[in-house]
Amino acid sequence: MQQQVLITGATSGFGKACATLFAQNGWNLILTGRRADRLQALETELTAAYKVSVLSLSFDVQEKDQVNKALQNLPERWQNIDVLINNAGLALGRERFDEADPADWETMIDTNIKGLLYVTRAVLPYMVQRKKGHIINIGSVAAKDTYESGNVYCATKAAVDTISKSMRIDLLNKGIKVTAIHPGAAETEFSEVRFKGDKEKAASVYEGYQALGAEDVASVIYYTATLPGHVCINDLVLTCTAQANAFYTHKG
Ligand code: NDP
Ligand code: 8X3
User: For a FRET experiment, which of 71, 123, 183, 209 has its CA 20 to 30 Å from that of 64?
Assistant: First the structure.
């Protein structure tokens, strides 16, 4: 039987690269994000190229009712979710604590923490029923070290780290694996979102070194998702070679 993966934030970056890689390997896909046009285009592309089935669901992970409406009553054939990749997330702003916009804090908390919780809570009954499943949460190097002006973004990713540990403990007797993956700087739309459309500022983040690409991160996610049933990578930090951690990047 074909395996199934549910990917949040599949319209861009890591999520989109995961969708492509899992489809190349014959997985059926549930793809989510807010931008329905992008989801539709990806669905059309992947079904044609790889003969897999795709279910696109457009919703905002911040909205509990939308999440539950989309995920709690999936058609029966889509309920066997082998892997959930909690990837949807964002940083907004890069200001010091006293200058940062509280509205940005709220959006990051609602998306990166509450959204991940809502999606997981809606999907878990399918996994618990089968006593099988794998939840892969996308954290960040920002979860491991707090950097200047990273304040609430770092806090949301530290929460993802802690929530992953908690899920692993609570789901131990349900046969469900929990993996937290913490990437370093990767060139996606992430910085453009963080700097609210300022492409120049976003591009400057990746100048002078070779950052990770979305495909690099997807290949590591895929690796963790395809290990034997009795093997689980609990916690994994990956960076480009030029980056040591959230503080130190060698720019040549
Ligand atoms: P992108 O901006 O390229 O992609 C983010 C994805 O998240 C998009 O598909 C977006 O879809 C989705 N998303 C954001 N907000 C919501 C929402 N409210 N509801 C539903 N979907 C949402 O960034 P990345 O691929 O780089 O980021 C993916 C994850 O990886 C994030 O959690 C990020 O924090 C994390 N990360 C990124 C790193 C990097 O350097 N790039 C490093 C470490 C971690 P849409 O807008 O269509 O809703
Ligand atoms: C994204 C990487 O270093 O900008 O999580 O926080 S960083």
Answer: 183
